[in-house]
Amino acid sequence: MIAAPDRTPLSRDFFDRPVLDVAPDLLGRVLVRRTPDGPIELRLTEVEAYDGANDPGSHAYRGRTARNSVMFGQPGHVYVYFTYGMWHCMNLVCGEEGRASGVLLRAGEITEGAELARERRLSARNDKELAKGPARLATALGVDRSLNGTDACAGPDSPLTVLQGTPTPADQVRNGPRTGVSGPGGVHPWRFWIPNDPTVSPYRPHTPRRRT
DNA sequence: TATAGGATTCTCT
DNA sequence: GAGAATCCTATAC
């Protein structure tokens, strides 16, 4: 018998730790997105760590800007950015305030509100693809820049909360190179996932884009 | 099934 | 003006 996931929100202290401790510990946790149409819940299966100013792959590497200012704030908040002209991706800020570390949420399994997620992800061929990839995850949950800076530890009044869920034992977590990160930052094996989970996104090395 | 290339707009240099 | 923590579709095999 598998114990039901713990529905207690994660505390600020959970996120106020080194990003490489927080990232693997997020696997199996439950993200709750409350929308006017109803809640959507997602069990995290894949994340990536970004270590602020020390990490060439991080948006915060070149210092604080208007775009990344949330990353420099209090841990436990949500950093949402817009990329490639059409997609949003979301991070959870962690580590001490000012360090600008964060965990990119790359993939997960929709465990509640799949109908609402399907309406947003019409191109998904099956439910495993609803949140298979960081931009797909944000799309399925209806996350955009309006949620940038949301406190994910605030409890049921917040549009976005992370619950204790069912943490994945450390010896069952796999790690490897981060996806799509160019330059020296790409070498860090800071991508963490639950092995053999069908919702984990395929690894894609960084490919430079050409303009026409 | 694998791979290549286009889409589209924000952000920073 | 260049590049971006990506995704989707068409094409080739």
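qc> The first helix of chain A runs from residue 12 to 15.
qc> done
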